[in-house]
Each structure stands twice: as structure tokens, then as C-alpha cells.
Design brief:
By secondary structure, the protein is α/β, with parallel strands linked by helices. The protein is built from 16 helices and 16 strands. Strands 1, 2, 3, 4, 5, 14, 15 and 16 form an 8-stranded mixed beta sheet that branches. It has an 8-stranded parallel beta sheet with strand order 6-7-8-9-10-11-12-13. Strand 15 and strand 16 form a beta hairpin. The chain is globular and about 70 Å long. The model has no long low-confidence stretch (mean pLDDT 97). The structure holds 2H-imidazol-4-ylacetic acid (IZC) and zinc ion. The site of 2H-imidazol-4-ylacetic acid has 11 residues, from helix 3.
Length: 406
């Protein structure tokens, strides 16, 4: 048992459903009692004399653990050589069409061993934990062949057991067309489809995602892969409208996708379709920043009743930062989100985008005890002080897993 006492402000969304409204409950002078990895009591005033471990929050802000619902965690190499191309305004899709971009990471990921990939991703997860992230989605998609896709997914599966952050695995075989299939799209799609039963059998992923974009995969191709995935009991996600609105969002919503991600170029029709299907919009403001692109129409989405999650999009190309706090700051400033809207987007709605809102994303009795203690006395403060890590202590499953300075 662990008692977190003397909490200045406890701020949390409530419930188990993704919502466009962001009602955040705040309790002053609160305590939280955790047992067996779960929250068993929340109260205000002086904490009762439980006989258990005690953690003095010293009057600070406490929120649910942060959930990063969109990352490309496992990959070989980096892509700093693309920086000068970006500086010359060479578009992201042109770098990819020339065999760079995703395809350059594919080369490095294929040649790395499982151990090398695992060690690198483990280091990244350790840093994410210090930033307050307690759950993180991880996509494959840098193999684009059977062995390397499986290798990436196995790294994620192994890392889930090796460190405190809960990992949620997504199969993204349709991330790009590999060079060797450049004249055989059908062959590649069939190959990636054929992997689905194996992934399910070995429990290597819960979700399937497709990069639906000009010059990558069309809406028809994306729909085909996701329908096949659903037949094998994998839930659908889609990268859509990152650069061009080619109809992916509408298709994803039509097939009941759990989330559509990016949405920088989302149309009114796309927003309407997400609203009707209850799909979570996973927005990635640090990618807009890094690609120097417009910011998604986040406020229009909320207004239309679409629940919005905010994630890092950590990857070696379009967002080489895994700092979810930075994405939160950008959401506040560039989406004009309130502190409450942003908190909702990185906790409860992010949990819903990973089908875990019954268990994660809020601080309520019965939920998993994943919490962040902040170097802050109120919620606004963490959105106001951008650019540094304001996490003080992180608790995962009722256990202290990070303490600043220790
Ligand atoms: O490596 O460029 N957008 N996939 C779709 C990415 C960005 C990751 C990358
Ligand atoms: Zn992505």
C-alpha cells in the first residue's frame, strides 16, 4: 500500500469514455491511497492513519500518468542528414520519393539486431518515464519485410516486460512501399496482409495502422489492409490527412477505426465522419512544428464533438522528440487548448485511443494507480513553463518508478 498525502491540487478527468468536453475535477489538499496497483481511496483533508508507505507530495500538483498514444518507438539510426534538405524546403514526401525518409530508417532498422533495437528503445523509454509518461503506443513500420516487422514487434513485446511504461503495440506494415516492391504494390499489400494471422497468434500487436497519404497508400489500399486486420481481430488506426486530405479519414471512420491520427489537413467531411463514428482524433502538434506545417483544426474538432487526444509522434523523421510535455505546451498555444482540454487529451482521451480508458487515464477509485507529481502547484503552471521537464515523481501501478534527483 502507498499513500500519497499532502497533495496541493489533484487534477483529473473522469469516466471511461473519450469526450470532446473536458471536465477536469480538481481536489485541493487531497490524498490518494493505492493498493495492489490500483487506486482504492481518494479523499481531502488530513489522510487517515493507514499503516503503509507514505509519500509526501508537499502541496504539489498531481495528475494521471501521461499517455503517449502515437509513437514510432523502435527504429535503427536517426535522420539528422535530412535537416539540411528540410532547411532548403524539400518537402517530406519528396525526400521519401527519393528513397530517403522512412526508407532510410528502414535500411538502418533492417540491419540492426533485435538487441540493438531493444537497447536503444529502452534508453528512450527511460527518458520518457522521467517526463511523466506511464503508457506508450509503439508502431512497427520500419521493417517493410516479414522478418524486420516481426523483429520490431518483438522488441516492443519484450520491452513491455523490462521496464515500467506499459507499451501498446501497433502493426504498421503499410508505412511505405519498400524499394523492392516498387513495381508490385499488390504483392507488397498481400505480403503485409499475410502477416496478420501470425501477429495475432503471437500476440505481437493489438492495433493495425496504415499511412494513407499521397504517394504512399491510397484510401482504397488503406481500407483494404484495415478490413483484413479487423478480420484477424486487430483494431484499426490510420495515419490520415498529415499532408493531403485524400479521403482516409472518412474511410477509417466508416470502418469503425478507434482513432485517426495527424489530421493536419482534415476537411469538414472528415471531421463530420469522425464525429459520427466516435473515432478519437489523435493530434500531433510537435510534428506540425517540426515540419513547419499548419496546426490541425483541433478546436473545430472539439466543437463538432470529436474527442481529441494529443501525442508526441516520436519518430526519427518528422518528430525526433519524445517530449510529450512539449506537445502539451504546443497544444495549449497552437490549438488554443485550455489546460483542462490538454490534460484530457493526454490522459483520458489518449487512454481511449488505446482502448484502455476503462483502466487508465483518470484518477478514480478502481483505476490503475498511474500518477505524476509535478514541480508545480496548479495545472496552468505546467502549460506556462515550456521547455523543461516539470515532472517530480512518477508512480506506475502503485509503485514509485521515478523521483527527480535520485
Ligand atoms: O519516419 O517519417 N509520418 N510516418 C508518417 C512518419 C511520419 C515517420 C517517419
Ligand atoms: Zn506516425
Amino acid at each position: 500500500m502507498l499513500l500519497i498525502e499532502n497533495i496541493g491540487v489533484l487534477a483529473t478527468p473522469q469516466g471511461t469514455l473519450a469526450t470532446a468536453e473536458s471536465t477536469v475535477v480538481t481536489l485541493k489538499n487531497a490524498y490518494v491511497l493505492c493498493d495492489n496497483g490500483k487506486i482504492v481511496e481518494i479523499g481531502t483533508g488530513k489522510a487517515p492513519e493507514f499503516s503503509c508507505d507514505r509519500l509526501d507530495a508537499n502541496g504539489c500538483l498531481v495528475t494521471p500518468g501521461l499517455i503517449d498514444a502515437h509513437t514510432h518507438l523502435v527504429f535503427g539510426g536517426w535522420r539528422e542528414h535530412e535537416l539540411s534538405l528540410k532547411r532548403q524546403d524539400v518537402p517530406y514526401l519528396e525526400i521519401l520519393a527519393q528513397g530517403g525518409g522512412i526508407l532510410s530508417t528502414v535500411k538502418k532498422t533492417r540491419s540492426a539486431s533485435l538487441e540493438e533495437l531493444s537497447e536503444k528503445a529502452l534508453g528512450i523509454l527511460q527518458e520518457m518515464l522521467c517526463l511523466g509518461v506511464t503508457t506508450c503506443e509503439a508502431k512497427s513500420g520500419y521493417g517493410l519485410d516479414v522478418d524486420t516487422e516481426l523483429k520490431q514487434l518483438r522488441v516492443t513485446q519484450e520491452l513491455n516486460e523490462l521496464q515500467p511504461i506499459e507499451l501498446v503495440s501497433t502493426y504498421l506494415g503499410a508505412h511505405a512501399l519498400p524499394r523492392e516492391y516498387k513495381d508490385d504494390r499488390e504483392g507488397y499489400l498481400a505480403l503485409m496482409e499475410a502477416l496478420l494471422p501470425r501477429i495475432k497468434e503471437e500476440n505481437l500487436a493489438e492495433f493495425c495502422d496504415v499511412f494513407c497519404e499521397t504517394g504512399v497508400f491510397s484510401a482504397d489500399e488503406a481500407e483494404r489492409i484495415l478490413r483484413a486486420a479487423q478480420k484477424h481481430d486487430l483494431q484499426a488506426k490510420m495515419h490520415a490527412d498529415e499532408i493531403d486530405p485524400i479521403g482516409g479519414t472518412e474511410r477509417a471512420a466508416g470502418l469503425g477505426a478507434v482513432s485517426v491520427e495527424h489530421l493536419i489537413a482534415a476537411t469538414d467531411a472528415g471531421i463530420e465522419a469522425m464525429k459520427n463514428s466516435g473515432t478519437v482524433a489523435v493530434l500531433l502538434p510537435a510534428t506540425s512544428f517540426y515540419l513547419d506545417k499548419p496546426y490541425a483544426r483541433a478546436r473545430d474538432m472539439l466543437q463538432a464533438g470529436v474527442p481529441v487526444a494529443v501525442a508526441s509522434d516520436f519518430n526519427p523523421g518528422s518528430c525526433p522528440s519524445f517530449n510529450l510535455q512539449l506537445a502539451m505546451n504546443l497544444a495549449c498555444w497552437k490549438y488554443r487548448f485550455t489546460a483542462e482540454e490538454t490534460l484530457n487529451a493526454v490522459t483520458k482521451n489518449a487512454a481511449a485511443a488505446l482502448l484502455r480508458a476503462d483502466r487508465l487515464g483518470t484518477l478514480e477509485v478502481g483505476k490503475q494507480a498511474d500518477l505524476v507529481l509535478w514541480d508545480a502547484n496548479n495545472l496552468d503552471y505546467i502549460f506556462y513553463r515550456f521547455g523543461q521537464n516539470l515532472t517530480k515523481t512518477v508512480i506506475k501501478n502503485g509503485k514509485i518508478v521515478y523521483m527527480k534527483g535520485l
